[in-house]
Amino acid sequence: MYLGRFAPSPTGPLHAGSLVAALASWLDARAAGGRWLVRIEDVDSGRCRAGAAERILAQLADCQLLPDAPPLYQSRRGARYQQMLDVLRARGLAYPCGCTRRDIDAALAAQGLAHERHHDRPYPGTCRAGLHGKPARAWRFHLEKYLSNWPQTQAGKAPAAPFSVEDKTLRWQDRRLGPQSQDVAREVGDFVLRRADGLWAYQLAVVVDDADQGITDVVRGEDLADNTPRQMLLQAALGLPTPRHLHTPLVRASDGEKLSKQHGAPALDTRAPLPPLAAAARVLALPEAPRESAVAQALAFWVAAWRDTYNRAP
Predict the structure, then answer these.
(1) Gene3D superfamilies recorded for this chain (predicted)?
(2) Which pTM was predicted?
(3) Is 261 within any annotated ligand binding site?
(4) Which CATH number is 131's domain given?
(5) 82 and 183 part of one domain
(6) Is 9 marked as binding a ligand?
(7) Is the dihedral of CA 206, 207, 208, 209 positive or negative?
(8) Burial status of residue 268 (CB atoms within 10 A of its CB: 0-12, 13-18, 19 or more)
(9) pLDDT tens digits for 127-164?
(10) Are residues 191 and 256 in the same domain?
(11) Residue 97 assigned to a binding site
């Protein structure tokens, strides 16, 4: 059975970009005759704003995008994340790291590499062999070790992972973007599972949550597409299923940057929900709903259009 989700971070109310992801994930679930959940990704407590989760849920309700179960809150799931980190540690696939960002930048500079804006700092593996007298700050996934044994790690597993790894490059298929690939070792390196400030990293939390909630399909903004290989590898390492993925177009500000709360995106006024919903549908290349449609009628129209576009028969 299809099970999808919308997973906002409560750093502020919904804006135009986040409504696109919410509408797309809801439409995909309804077009497949499946269920749709909301997960509040509040694990990064320092960025969360009081009352934002409740505001987001109210905005979704205004738009008649109603989840089929109560929301899941990441902030209540630390014990589960610790359990899964312990699994990786027991398998030798997680290790403590004492590096600061300055340390990583210095190590990259020594290799003739510079940190590119909007890109992750590829971790150079400094602490793989030990902390070298530094205090432990974070926990990292031992990507190099896992990929070096890739054919053996997958032997006899069923079902087979819905992606391939060759020469440490992971290849997978996105339902909208088509064939995707990433050399995870070169572009990312051993990524963080638990941060230096003690908070759980997005990569581990989302993988554990998707598995525990039984998510079959992830529909989210295309800015998160480059996170997908890391999550697929973590799922494989933990013996968890890998969902299908569809990454949606982004709403961009006038300067070309992704519209986001951090860049001052205005909150949506959902008291009259049809205009913002229609704007989100246009971003998703869906046709205009018939004039004088009520919200429920417009949503039903877009469900049918979505099904035609993505061949998702219920």
Answers:
(1) HUPs (3.40.50.620)
(2) 0.91
(3) yes
(4) 3.90.800.10
(5) yes
(6) yes
(7) positive
(8) buried
(9) 998 988 889 999 999 998 999 887 655 544 544 567 88
(10) no
(11) yes
